[in-house]
Design a protein that fits this description.
Layout (H helix, E strand, L loop, with lengths): L6 H10 L7 H12 L4 H9 L4 E5 L9 E6 L2 E6 L2 E5 L2 H12 L4 E5 L2 H26 L6 H23 L22
Antiparallel strand pairs: 1-5, 2-3, 3-4
Helix pairs in contact: 2-5, 2-6, 3-5, 3-6, 4-5, 5-6
């Protein structure tokens, strides 16, 4: 009976073949290579910043604070630690939650709300895949696997945050093309 391995298991098996234990830098580089097209800053630069967006500020996240999407009587809220932000819909809250998890203080939000849901799916998938790869690639380190995993996670999250902050959050208000022709007003004869 032939057993087929999933993509993550195959990548992990190839990675574990090396004779020595990989360093944090090697592990983070391998995870970034595995993510390739789904690396969160790449999605942000190539898919999000190329469309019309508006800048959205996020509360700074301290160590140990949780990020939650909550449904309240007032609507959908994104809760970062003790601070709450009202969001227009669940897709925007999910989208911003990923950037809050990364510790970003500002992010570009698509102006067209029809695109927010699919982009929220993409950035959530990217974030969760990164976390799964961190766990997968750091499981070979015993007994210090927890400390190693934490350092790899911290390093990758720092890279995600710094690349997104370097790209910027876009303009506070999107630019509109005002290329409509203006006709002179008619005067009453």
């Amino acid at each position: 009976m032939v057993h087929q391995q999933s993509g993550i298991e195959t990548e992990r098996a190839d990675f574990l073949e090396s004779a020595r234990s990989p360093s944090i830098e090697e592990t983070t580089l391998k995870i970034k290579e595995s993510l390739a097209e789904t690396w969160l800053p790449r999605i942000y630069n190539e898919r999000i910043l190329t469309m019309r967006t508006r800048a959205h500020r996020l509360p700074a996240r301290s160590k140990g604070e949780t990020v939650e999407v909550q449904h309240t009587l007032l609507g959908v809220e994104l809760k970062v630690g003790r601070r709450r932000m009202l969001c227009p819909d669940i897709a925007t809250a999910r989208y911003l939650a990923v950037f809050a998890h990364a510790g970003c203080t500002a992010a570009a939000v698509p102006y067209d709300i029809r695109q927010t849901s699919s982009l929220a799916d993409e950035v959530e998938f990217s974030w969760q895949r990164m976390l799964l790869l961190i766990d997968s690639f750091s499981n070979n380190r015993q007994p210090a696997s927890v400390a190693f995993r934490s350092r790899v996670r911290r390093t990758l999250i720092h890279e995600v945050r710094s690349e997104i902050e370097r790209a910027g959050a876009g303009t506070p208000v999107p630019e509109f093309n005002q290329n409509t022709k203006q006709y002179p007003r008619r005067t009453a004869d």
